[in-house]
């Protein structure tokens, strides 16, 4: 099981304690501080790190010197940015944003297909082009954030996730999908020759407490135990701080996941949890 | 089930995605008057897309009105006259200026989603409104980063209509503040031309309530929502969307969402959103009624015009 450093502590996210999350964010005020923290965490022995494409995350990844045998797992898009665009000027503002921020060459490649068919899956390449820095090391995994994955599952547009996987592979990366509905996603992935490959990673919540594990802890446990052609990554493994650590680690170690991702603003906590997960 | 959705913006899309996942074989019709959005949507979403409801003669099992607030009331009346069985209107029903209760329909419900938060459910089931002497509620976020355009920069928007209404409804749902008496208000515009920061003090049944709403706090990434309640017996209860802390001067007890049942068949944007759609299509025990929504509009109007 590979172990990755998560990014919630850098950006003020704590699903269990929102106030604590915002306080933690204040500890990481600039790019250098975050990059140094990631490097120190890698020295402990972690297999890499996972980070979102928000403004700071993009900058961190853009010039990060990746250590040998380490991995970057990069999630797009930054939902808050797009939610703000919609809040301020409506749904069509999103389209305007993508079109006005994409290079002429990329527009020439992607736009005719979209204009001809009206199918938004032809815009996925514009989104990846804007959100993924060109310097992201090849072989890294690029994920779609859960709010997008799950919305697309809900509106029966799994083909857009397939288009995303195809585009990401073309760019030299591995595809990843973050979801809070892993069982519904699994049903769709299993039917898709295009996406159901060994380079795919599906990331979802799983923890001893059953915190934010949907549709239920029991069903997700059964899903984890079933056969997959792709990698499984557990997130929220400590219930965002709401779990007993000893029980949480014992539980996660017995699941047989391919990856886990967790974060902390304290290196000593990362080291302690890493050692307990490895041994 | 035949479902009609007016408006295919962010909320229309969210509710559609959830309903499409939890109701087998539902058939959707959408009314989206924006020509470009209508064209793109009809090419990408399974369902019938219309630019207006003029040609609709049949009634629907469920209708969702997720348009800007200024047309809520007319659309809701039209749906009721047409015989639609259940009508859901996004909050705040018509905005703060809609304070008349002339649409008397028992099948119209307003989308105040905080009611469906598991922690709020716990408070509803465990705290007697008559035991409260003080309550303070705040909601702070970084929702607006620059001045919005269109109706979102006008009297139908502002932090009070868009965010504060959620908290006011939740407090009314939990503690019944229908007979409110406002004692103090402060409204500030910071980014938009309407209210971005609002402070309110009010009295209800000899209980003091304080509210603070701010949606332009740049220091936050995620919204912070917190309510503290002082009880007659001296207990202090603090809750947010994740947990309740009960302090009785001798010990502190925490009940978190981890301890509360959260199982839902499909997740998008929050447990609350799915639970709201489940309640709407089944028992409708927790949904906000028209009368309750009008109470919140009345309260907001008094705050804004005071």
Q: Based on helices, strands and strand pairing, what is the structural class of chain B?
A: alpha/beta
> Could you tell me the mean pLDDT of chain A?
89
* Assembly state: heterodimer
Spatial extent as radius of gyration of chain A: 18 Å
Instruction: Specify the overall morphology of chain B.
Output: globular
Largest sheet of chain B: 8 strands, mixed
Largest sheet of chain A: 8 strands, parallel, barrel
Give the helices and strands of chain B as they follow along the chain. Answer: EHEHEEHEEHEHEEEEEEEHEH
Q: Using a beta-carbon cutoff below 8 angstroms, give the protein chain pair with the largest interface and the number of residues from each chain.
A: A-B, 48 and 53 residues
Instruction: Tell me the total number of β-strands of chain A.
Output: 8
Summarize the structure.
Chain A is of the alpha/beta class. Chain A has helices at residues 18-25, 31-44, 55-62, 79-89, 92-101, 104-117, 124-131, 146-154, 158-170, 182-190, 217-225, 245-253, 267-278; strands spanning 2-5, 48-52, 71-76, 141-144, 174-178, 201-205, 231-235, 259-262. In chain A, strand 6, helix 11 (217-225) and strand 7 form a beta-alpha-beta unit.
Task: Describe, in plain words, how this protein is organized in 3D.
The complex is a heterodimer of chains A (279) and B (306). The longest helix of chain A is centred in the N-terminal third of the chain and has 14 residues, at 31-44. Helices cover 48% and strands 14% of the residues of chain A. In chain A, helix 4 (79-89) packs across helix 5 (92-101). Chain A is globular, with a radius of gyration of 18 Å. Chain A is an alpha/beta fold and 279 residues long. Chain A starts with a strand and ends with a helix. Chain A is built from 13 helices and 8 strands. Chain A has an 8-stranded parallel barrel with strand order 1-2-3-4-5-6-7-8, surrounded by 5 helices. The model of chain B has no long low-confidence stretch (mean pLDDT 93). In chain B, the strands form 2 sheets. An 8-stranded mixed β-sheet of chain B has the order 8-9-10-7-11-12-13-14, covered by helices on one side. Chain B has a 7-stranded mixed β-sheet with strand order 3-2-1-4-5-6-15, with helices on both faces. Chain B has helices at 10-22, 35-44, 72-82, 118-126, 159-175, 271-281, 290-305, and strands spanning 2-6, 27-31, 48-50, 62-65, 86-90, 108-111, 132-140, 181-188, 197-204, 207-214, 224-231, 236-239, 243-247, 252-256, 288-289. With 306 residues, chain B is α/β, with parallel strands linked by helices. In chain B, helix 1 links the parallel strand 1 and strand 2. The longest helix of chain B has 17 residues, at 159-175. Chain B has 7 helices and 15 strands. Chain B is globular. Helices cover 28% and strands 27% of the residues of chain B.
């Amino acid at each position: 099981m590979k172990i990755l450093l998560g990014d919630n502590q850098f950006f003020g996210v704590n699903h269990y304690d929102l106030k604590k999350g915002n306080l933690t964010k204040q500890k990481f005020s600039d790019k250098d501080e975050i990059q140094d923290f990631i490097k120190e965490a890698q020295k402990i022995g972690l297999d890499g790190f996972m980070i979102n494409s928000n403004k700071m995350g993009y900058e961190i990844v853009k010039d990060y010197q990746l250590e040998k045998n380490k991995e970057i797992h990069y999630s797009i898009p930054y939902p808050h940015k797009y939610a703000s665009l919609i809040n301020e000027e409506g749904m069509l503002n999103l389209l305007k944003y993508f079109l006005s921020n994409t290079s002429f060459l990329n527009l020439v490649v992607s736009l005719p297909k979209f204009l001809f068919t009206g199918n938004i899956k032809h815009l996925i390449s514009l989104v990846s082009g804007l959100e993924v820095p060109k310097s992201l090391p090849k072989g890294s995994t690029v994920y779609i954030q859960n709010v997008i994955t799950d919305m697309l599952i809900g509106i029966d547009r799994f083909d857009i996730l397939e288009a995303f996987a195809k585009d990401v592979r073309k760019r030299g990366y591995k595809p990843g999908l973050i979801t809070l509905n892993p069982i519904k996603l699994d049903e769709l992935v299993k039917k898709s020759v295009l996406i159901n490959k060994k380079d795919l990673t599906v990331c979802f919540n799983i923890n001893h407490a059953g915190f934010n594990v949907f549709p239920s802890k029991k069903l997700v446990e059964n899903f984890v135990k079933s056969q997959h052609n792709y990698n499984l990554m557990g997130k929220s493994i400590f219930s965002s701080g709401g779990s007993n650590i000893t029980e949480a680690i014992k539980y996660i170690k017995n699941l047989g996941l391919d990856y886990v991702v967790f974060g902390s603003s304290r290196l000593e906590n990362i080291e302690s949890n890493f050692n307990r997960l490895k041994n | 089930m035949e479902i009609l959705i007016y408006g295919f913006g962010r909320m229309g899309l969210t509710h559609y995605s959830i309903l499409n996942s939890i109701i087998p074989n539902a058939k959707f019709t959408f009314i989206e008057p924006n020509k470009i959005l209508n064209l793109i949507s009809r090419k990408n979403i399974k369902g019938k897309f219309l630019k207006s409801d003029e040609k609709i003669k049949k009634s629907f099992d469920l209708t969702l009105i997720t348009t800007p607030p200024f047309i809520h009331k007319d659309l809701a009346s039209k749906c009721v006259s047409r015989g639609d069985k259940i009508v859901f209107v996004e909050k705040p029903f018509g905005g703060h200026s809609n304070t008349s209760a002339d649409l008397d329909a028992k099948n119209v419900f307003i989308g105040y989603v905080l009611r469906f938060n598991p922690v709020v459910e716990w408070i509803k089931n465990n705290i007697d409104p008559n035991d409260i002497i003080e309550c303070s509620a705040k909601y702070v976020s970084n929702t607006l980063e620059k001045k919005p355009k269109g109706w979102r920069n006008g009297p139908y928007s502002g932090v009070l209509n868009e965010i504060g209404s959620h908290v006011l409804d939740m407090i009314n749902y939990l503690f019944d503040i229908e007979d409110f008496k406002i004692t103090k208000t402060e409204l500030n515009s910071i980014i938009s031309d309407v209210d971005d920061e609002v402070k309110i003090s009010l009295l209800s049944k000899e209980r003091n309530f304080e509210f603070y709403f701010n949606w332009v706090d740049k220091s936050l990434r995620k919204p912070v929502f917190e309510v503290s309640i002082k009880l007659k017996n001296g207990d202090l209860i603090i809750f947010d969307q994740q947990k309740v802390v009960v302090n009785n001067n001798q010990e502190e007890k925490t009940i978190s969402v981890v301890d509360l049942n959260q199982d839902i068949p499909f997740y998008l944007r929050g447990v609350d959103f799915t639970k709201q759609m489940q309640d709407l299509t089944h028992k409708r025990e927790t949904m906000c009624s028209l009368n309750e929504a009008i109470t919140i509009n009345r309260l907001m109007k008094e705050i804004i015009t005071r």
